[in-house]
Amino acid sequence: MKAGIIGANGYSGVELIRFLSNHPFVQIEMLISHSTSGKNIKDLYPHLSDVCEKTLENVDIDEIAERTDLLFFAVPSGVSQSLVPQFLKKGLTCIDLSGDFRLKDPDKYTKWYQKPPAHQGYLQQAVYGLPEFYQEQIKNAKLIANPGCYPTAALLGILPAVKMGLVNFETLIIDGKSGVSGAGRGVSLGSHFCEVNENVKAYKIGVHQHTPEIEQTIQDISGEQININFTPHLIPMTRGIMCTIYAGLKKPLTTEEVVEQYKQFYESSYFARVREAGDWPATKEVYGSNYCDIGIVSDERTNRVMIISVIDNVIKGASGQAIQNMNLIYGWEEWTGLTLTPVFP
Amino acid sequence: MKAGIIGANGYSGVELIRFLSNHPFVQIEMLISHSTSGKNIKDLYPHLSDVCEKTLENVDIDEIAERTDLLFFAVPSGVSQSLVPQFLKKGLTCIDLSGDFRLKDPDKYTKWYQKPPAHQGYLQQAVYGLPEFYQEQIKNAKLIANPGCYPTAALLGILPAVKMGLVNFETLIIDGKSGVSGAGRGVSLGSHFCEVNENVKAYKIGVHQHTPEIEQTIQDISGEQININFTPHLIPMTRGIMCTIYAGLKKPLTTEEVVEQYKQFYESSYFARVREAGDWPATKEVYGSNYCDIGIVSDERTNRVMIISVIDNVIKGASGQAIQNMNLIYGWEEWTGLTLTPVFP
Amino acid sequence: MKAGIIGANGYSGVELIRFLSNHPFVQIEMLISHSTSGKNIKDLYPHLSDVCEKTLENVDIDEIAERTDLLFFAVPSGVSQSLVPQFLKKGLTCIDLSGDFRLKDPDKYTKWYQKPPAHQGYLQQAVYGLPEFYQEQIKNAKLIANPGCYPTAALLGILPAVKMGLVNFETLIIDGKSGVSGAGRGVSLGSHFCEVNENVKAYKIGVHQHTPEIEQTIQDISGEQININFTPHLIPMTRGIMCTIYAGLKKPLTTEEVVEQYKQFYESSYFARVREAGDWPATKEVYGSNYCDIGIVSDERTNRVMIISVIDNVIKGASGQAIQNMNLIYGWEEWTGLTLTPVFP
Amino acid sequence: MKAGIIGANGYSGVELIRFLSNHPFVQIEMLISHSTSGKNIKDLYPHLSDVCEKTLENVDIDEIAERTDLLFFAVPSGVSQSLVPQFLKKGLTCIDLSGDFRLKDPDKYTKWYQKPPAHQGYLQQAVYGLPEFYQEQIKNAKLIANPGCYPTAALLGILPAVKMGLVNFETLIIDGKSGVSGAGRGVSLGSHFCEVNENVKAYKIGVHQHTPEIEQTIQDISGEQININFTPHLIPMTRGIMCTIYAGLKKPLTTEEVVEQYKQFYESSYFARVREAGDWPATKEVYGSNYCDIGIVSDERTNRVMIISVIDNVIKGASGQAIQNMNLIYGWEEWTGLTLTPVFP
C-alpha cells in the first residue's frame, strides 16, 4: 500500500511520517507540500535525518493519483474540500485531518469556520473517523473526516454516558486545556514562547469551531438536539489535551458505579483506558501514544459527574487516529503501527 | 510599625519580605520559623542577598509579642489556630494566610481540612480579608482570615454577578487552573519538575478545601444556601491562577451589558481590572502584581455567562492581599507598597 | 524630566515603561513606534491597563525634540544610527539600547552586524554604558551605547579578573545561555513555543555580534588584543542570561582568594553581588531585578577559573541598565527606581 | 531470553520497561525494587496501564537467578557493587546503569563518588558500554558498565577528534546542559518545579563524578593523561543533554574538513548522526530516541573547534544504550527494539 501525505511539512504531517515509517504494511511514497516543495523534509525537520529524507513534492493531481493508493490531508481547513473530490474520483482513499468534512450541515461550517463549505454530497459521504463509535462505517469508508483534537477527547469522555443515558444534555459543559502544538507550526504572536510560557489563557470562548462538531456527534448518538458550552484554554506545554467535562446525572450514581459502566463500555476498545475510582489521568500519561485515558468523579453534593479525558493531541487527536482509521479501512488490527508506550517522564 | 512573619521560610513568607522591604510605613522586625531557625534567610533564598539578611528566629511568644505590633502567619493549615489566640491576647494584630480562621462553621473545617478546628469564638471574630467586599469590617479587625488563592480569584470573578442578582447559583461551576507555587516549597512527587512539566492534571476533584470557603462567601453575600462544583488543575507554570466560571443567567444579557455592570461595580476598586468585551485576561498579565483581571462572555446559545478571573496566586492570592489588608487596618491607602506593574514578558 | 521611548512596543520598551512609571524624577511623555503608531499601548500589552494607557506616536523629529528631554532607543540594530544624530543636534540626551554605537571600529560593525555602520564621529562620542566600569564617563555623556545582554553578563563576570591581572586572555571561553525574550517580540520559527520548549539549542556559533563587543571592552580595560570564543545557547525560559566563563589563571589561586578579590572589587557596586565560595547563582535569583550575581570556582586540577555570571536579560541586560545610566547622567543615585527585589519563585 | 530490572521504579527503570515491552527477543520476567515491592508498577506509573502491569518484587538473589538470564541495574551508585558479583557467579549477564563499575581505578571512585569502591577484580572485568567505541569487547562481556549520561554525550562528541589526533587534550573544556530527569524521581528541593522552571543553574562545578569517567575514556583512546574542565548545568526541561565541547586544534582545519572526517568516522554507526557544516543539533531533535546528533564549528580566529553533541539522557544516556549493549552481547542487530523516531515537536 502506497501512501502520500499532503501537508507533510506541518506537525501532523511529520507525525504521520513517524508512524508510517514504522508501519508494517504501508510505505510512504510521496510527501506533498505546496509551500515547501523542492526541499528535503530533513532540512525542515532534522530529527528525521536517516529516518525519512524524501523531497517534498508539489500538488500534481495526476501524478499523485498514479503513484499512491491512499492520501492523508494534514492541511488547514478550507484546503481539502477542493482536493479530496478529485482524488476520490480517481479511486484513492482519503483521510482528511482538517475540519472540512466533519460537519454534515454546510451552514454550520460556514457559520463556525467562516468559510464556504464542501459540497453537500461529499459531506454526506464522509465518515466521522472516531473508531470507538463508528468502527463499522469506517471499515467501508473511502473518505474519512478525522475528528478534531478537542472533540476526540471530549467525545470519548462523554459519549458513553450519553449512550447509556446517564446524563442530562442541557447541563453539559466542557472545559478544554490544550498544548500549543494544536495551533500548528505557523508563526504568530499567540505561539511565541514568551507569550505562552508561564501563562494560561482562554481563547475563542463561545465561538470555537469544535463546538458544533461535539454537538453534532452527541446528537447523532442520542437523537436529541443540544447546545453545549465549550471553553478552550492554551496551556504552556507542547502536547496534550485535557477535557474536563461537567454533566448533571439523571439519577444518582456513585463514582464506582459510573467507573464500572465505563470500563464495561470500553472493554473491547484498545486505546481507551478507564481509571479506577479516585484516580484521574494527566496528559503526560498518554504523551507520545494513541491512548485516551479517562477518569470519573460523581459528586453527590451537586448530583453532577465530572469526567477527565486526556489525549496526545497530535496522535489520538490527529495523526495516530488517522492511522487507526486507515488500519480499519484496510482490515488490519486497529493498533497496527500504533503500539507506542507513552513517553514518561 | 514593626512586623513579624511566622513561616518566613516559605514562598508566601519570602513574598511578604519582598513587599514589606519596600513598604514605607512598616519595618520587618522578626523572621520566624520553627524548622529553620538559626539560619539566615539569604542562605535559604540567595535572591534576598543585600535585600534582607535577617536570621530566622524561633517561636517565642513573649519575645515576639514584645518586639512586634503585627504578625503575618504564612504557615500550613492547623498551625495558626493555636498561635493566634496567644498573640491576640497580647494585643497584636494578626493576619493569617492559612485556612484556619476562614470557615465560620467548625464542622465544615473538620470535614474539609480533616483536622480539628479553631475555637468558635475566634472563628466568629475573624474577618474574611477580601477587601473588595469586606473593606469596612477589615478596617476594624484584629484578626484577618486572609482568603485562599482559588477563592480570591473565584469570588472576585463571580461575586459581582451574585450581588447584582444576575445568575442562578445552583448552576455554578468553577474550573480552576493553578501554577505549582500554590503547593509551597515542601518537596513531594507532585511538585517534582519531571512530573509537572509538559503536563496538566486535575486533583482533589470534589474534595478541595477551598470549596466551602467559596460557598460560604457566596452565601454570605446572597443569603442563599448553595453547593458548587470546583475542580482544581495543576498547570506547568510557577505562578498564576485562572478560574473559569460558568453560571446560568437569570435573564438574557449581552456580553457588553455584563461587562458594563462589572466595570461600574469595580469602579473604585484599585486592584480589580475588568476587560472590554471580546478580551480575556491571561495569568501572565497579572504576574508579579496584586491585580485581579476579569473577562466576561455571555453565550446566548446556552444562556450562560463565562467569567475568566486571573491573579498571581502568591500575591493577590496570598501575600499581596495580606499587605492590602494591613494597609486597610492601619488606615493607609490600600495600594501602599503594592503598586507593582506586572512583569511582562 | 520628560522622556520618550522609541520602539516602545517591544519587550525592552514595555520594561522601560514599567521602570519609568515608578521613577520619582522622570515622566513618560511619549511612546513612539513606527509600526504600531495610533494604537494604545494597553491594547498591545493588557498588563499595562491602568498603569500606562498612552497612544503610540509616530517618529516626528521636531515634535519629539520639543516635548522630550531624554530619549531611549529600544529598536533593532540599524535604526538608531540615523535617528540619534538628529536628536543630539537638538540637545536631547540619547540612550541607545541597540548595537549601533557600541563598536568603536566601524569595520567590525559591518563585519559582525552585516550592515553599514554609524558615522565615525558618533561612534567616538558614544560612551559604553556599563556603569560598574565607566561610571565617570557616563556621568558626562550625551549619547550612551547601552551594552548588549550577553556582554553585560560576560563582562561583569570577567572584567575584575582582567583588571586585577589574574587571567590569561588567550584562554578565554564564554558559554552563554539565554532566555527567549532576548530575541524580542517579533514572531519567527525560532521563538515558536513548540520549537523552544523542552529544548536547548546553540546558535550563531562563532559569529554572534556580541563577540567583538566583549573583546573590545576587555581590550579597553587590559590594553591587549584578544580573540575569544563565545557560544550562545537558547534555553526554554523567558528571561535570564547565564555566562559560564572559563579562563586560565596566571598563577594559582584558591576559590576563596578569587572570591575575596571580587568582593572587594565590587564593594561599592550596588548591583553586583558576589557569592561566597561554594555557592553559585541561578538566573531566577535575579529575575525581575537589576542585579548581576557572580559565583566563582578555581580548579587546581586545570589551573582554570570558572565564573558564573547571571542577569535578567531584559533588565540589567537592557532596560534596567538604561535607567541606571540615566540616573548617573542626571546625578541621581544609580539605584533610583531600580530597587526591585527579584521575584522568587 | 528473560530479563529482570532491579530498580524498576525509577525513571531509567520504566524506560527499560518501555523498550523491553517492544523488543522481539526479550521478555520482562521480573520487576524488582527494594523500596516499592508489592506494588503494581502501573500504580506508580499509570502510563503503563495495559502495557506492563507486573507487581514489583523484592531482591531475592536465588529466585532472581532462577527466573532470569539477564539483569539490568537501574539503581543509584553504591548499590550494584554488592549485588552484581552474586549474580555473575550464578551465570547471569549484568548490565549496570550506575557508576559502580565504570572507573577502573578504585581510588578515583572513592574520591569522586565519596563511597567505597567495588572490588578491583570486577572493575577490571567490567566492559565500558559505549558501543560506538567498544563494540568488540561488549560482544563478549558478562558485565557492562553502562556509561553515564554526560560522558555518553561528551565522548561521542570528542572521541573521534581524539582518535584522529585533531586536538590538544590540555585545552579541553566541556560545558554540559541537562534536563532534570537525570537526577531521578527522588524528591528534593533541587528538582522542585518552582526552583527549576524559568531558571538555569550550574552545579557540582569541578567536582562532578562524570569528570573522571570522561577523562579515563579519553586516556584509554589516546594513551595520554589529561585533566579536563566539565561544568554541568540544570536546564528547565525534563529530557535531553547537550555538551558544548571546546578544544584547540593541533593544526588548522575548516569546519567542512572536520565535519567530513566525523561523517566518515561514524559512517557505520547507526545511532550517531553528524550534521552538515552550518547546522547544529538541538536536544529536542533526539527526544525519545537513541540517537546522538553532533554538530561542529571550527573557528579560525581562535583555532578552536566547538562540538555540539546532544542525546536523550534517559535513552542514549541510560536505558536505550543499555538495550543497545544487550543487543550486541546476544548477537542481535544493535538497533533491535530501538528504531524509535524522535518525538517532535
Characterise this structure.
Chains A, B, C, D: Belongs to the NAGSA dehydrogenase family. Type 1 subfamily. Chains A, B, C, D: Pathway: Amino-acid biosynthesis; L-arginine biosynthesis; N(2)-acetyl-L-ornithine from L-glutamate: step 3/4. The structure is a homotetramer of 345-residue chains. By secondary structure, the first copy, chain A, is an alpha/beta fold. Chain A has 2 domains: 124 residues, NAD(P)-binding Rossmann-like Domain (Rossmann fold); 165 residues, 2-Layer Sandwich (Dihydrodipicolinate Reductase, domain 2). Chain A is built from 12 helices and 14 strands. The model of chain A has no long low-confidence stretch (mean pLDDT 97). Chains in contact: A-B, A-C, A-D, B-C, B-D, C-D. The interface between A and B is large, with 45 and 45 residues.
Mean pLDDT figure of chain A = 97
Multimerization state: homotetramer
Question: What series of H and E elements makes up the topology of chain A?
Answer: EHEHEHEHEHHEHEHEHEHEEHEEEH
Helix % of chain A is: 25-40%
Secondary structure category of chain A: alpha/beta
Q: Greatest chain-chain interface?
A: A-B, 45 and 45 residues
Task: Report the C-alpha radius of gyration of chain A, rounded.
Answer: 20 Å
Q: How many domains of chain A?
A: 2
Give the percentage of residues in beta strands of chain A.
15-25%
CATH superfamily of the largest domain in chain A: Dihydrodipicolinate Reductase, domain 2
Unreliable stretches of chain A (pLDDT < 50, length at least 5) are none
Major beta sheet summary of chain A = 7 strands, parallel
* CATH architecture field of the largest domain in chain A: 2-Layer Sandwich
Principal-axes geometry of chain A comes out as globular
CATH uppermost class of the largest domain in chain A: Alpha Beta
End-to-end Cα distance of chain A, whole Å, is 35 Å
